[in-house]
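Re: the request from the purification team.
They wanted to know what the chain is likely to look like in 3D before they choose a buffer screen. I agreed to run a prediction and write the result into the notebook, where they can find it.
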Amino acid sequence: MTENTKEFGALDLIKRVFVKVGVLPFFLLGALVIFTILSPKFLTGQNLINVARQSVYLVLVSMGQMLVLISGGFDLSVGTAIALTSVVSALGMVWLAGIFPDAIWLAILLGAFMGFGAAILVGVVNGIGVAYFEVSPFIMTLGVSSVGAGLALFLTGGVPVSGMPFAFGDTFGFGRLWGIPVPVIIALMCIVVMWVFMSRTRLGTQIYAVGGNIKAAHLSAINTKRTLMLAYIICALIASLTGLLLTARVESGEANLGGTIALESIAACVIAGVSLRGGIGRVENVVLGGFFIVLVQNGMNLAQVSSYMQMVLLGVLLILAVIFDQLRYRILMSGR
């Protein structure tokens, strides 16, 4: 076999991997090599466990964002859903703990449901605007994000909500089960549920169909408006779960939680091969995409890269991911 034949075979293999799973494996391999060289602490078991724990929140939000992206839109209000959940659930728990001092877990449960209710409202408003009034997802979710952020600040007066039940933060923020952090266990359960939902249920298939071609989906008797609506509601609910876990971690209701997570979740999805045009995306890749973003941030921290330069590098990664997404889409559409 000649050198040219070997080179052609290697290039063909790289192209097939790129078309199938996107640019993520190449980015991940590059990050592992670069940061291992820059810091001997990077590729250690303890550091990777730490990255896994830190990536829980972004991975969860990215899975919700994936649903909306696959349906042909995107959601800039996931950060607001997190903030509203944090504030409403914290206020609810503090109030209910005063009413039921001997039933703390009842206060925690009811407070959590209040947070979920606030997030469902965000998802419903987004879904109605996008699906029924055909407002651009960018404008709709941006407007809802602004309204929700203002409500969160209004409810708290800009001051964190303190005095939450100790058991809530101790269990869901710092608790461990079989030696594994509780947030990691919750995230693993959500990953399995989301994988089954997207690959084995009718609604998951319909979300792919709507994102691939909404007119064809409508002609195939799919209720496209209902499907879009549910995609935004589920996205908000997953963001709400993230908000509860973050609230437990910081042990207070914060109106500024999730400030940058909307853009980070979109970046994680795009890097993971979820098409911005809709119809394409895999749960397992998105999980790796969220892990990759946190891994890169961790590696840059260990390498003592300044926070300003980290913003630059993450922005460059996102731009490259979008460029490669365009290239991959053209290859897929050409059938080559």
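For the purification team: The mean pLDDT is 86.
Please add any questions underneath this entry.
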